[in-house]
Amino acid sequence: MIDTQIRRWLPAWLGGSRPQESFRPRGTSSRVSRLAAQYDAEVDAALQRLWPKARIYHDREFTRDRADYLLVVRGRGVMIETKVKSDPGLFRGSTLPPLLDRLQRDGRRLVVLLNQGDPTPARDLISTKLGDKGRIIVWSGPHHDAELRQAVESLLEQTTRHA
Fold first, then answer.
1. Measured distance CA(78)–CA(2) in Å, rounded
2. Which of the 8 DSSP states describes residue 163?
3. CB of 46 within 8 A of CB of 145?
4. In Å, how far are 8, 62, 155, 161 from 114, measured between CA atoms?
5. Nearby residues of 80 by Cβ (< 8 Å), 6 or more positions away
6. pTM: predicted TM-score of the whole model, two decimal places
7. Is 120 left (phi over 0), alpha (psi -120 to 50) or beta?
8. Burial class (CB in 10 A: 0-12, 13-18, 19+), 100
């Protein structure tokens, strides 16, 4: 980041020393990152609880065009994407298009799990891109396990068995 404070640069120009800058992470970013890490751990536990015999692959590298999880149940796979909001407002899904484009090309199924908020605008986006191959639900803990199970199972019924 460029330092635009003249009072910090002026002493260096006049032969003095410039005070060392300190790194301060942005509050929102770090808070959301902590929430996302905690949410991913809760989602992982829920997937293991709901499908104890399933294979769960967690992509720990941050990318916009790959889902966070691949859940393989009875030889059938469903992609799981987690989204964390720090406020309970609308979730528009502005970060989803690269992932949706890739899954649309690949013919994959997707469940988006949102920790809170109203997913209506994102639901429309997912429906436009993936049709009946995509779902979005609000999942914030075990009390939403029934919705998670229903969303995943409905997509598993559609898929063909992987070789």
1. 44
2. -
3. yes
4. 43, 17, 18, 28
5. 43, 47, 67, 68, 69, 70, 71, 110, 111, 112, 113, 152
6. 0.78
7. alpha
8. buried
Strand 55-58 to strand 76-83: parallel, antiparallel, or no bridges (unpaired)? unpaired
Contact at 8 Å (CB) between 99 and 65? yes
Which amino acid belongs to residue 109?
R
- Give SS3 for 70: strand
Bridge partner list, 57: 70
Element (DSSP H or E) covering residue 42 = helix 27-50
List residues bridging with 76 in a β-sheet: 73
Q: What is the mean pLDDT of residues 25-36?
A: 64
Is residue 103 classed exposed, middle or buried when 0-12, 13-18 and 19+ CB atoms within 10 A define those classes? buried
Kindly report, residue by residue over 99-136, the tens digit of the pLDDT. Answer: 999 999 988 999 999 999 999 999 999 999 999 999 99
User: 75: which DSSP letter?
Assistant: T
End-to-end, the C-alpha distance of the chain in Å comes to: 50
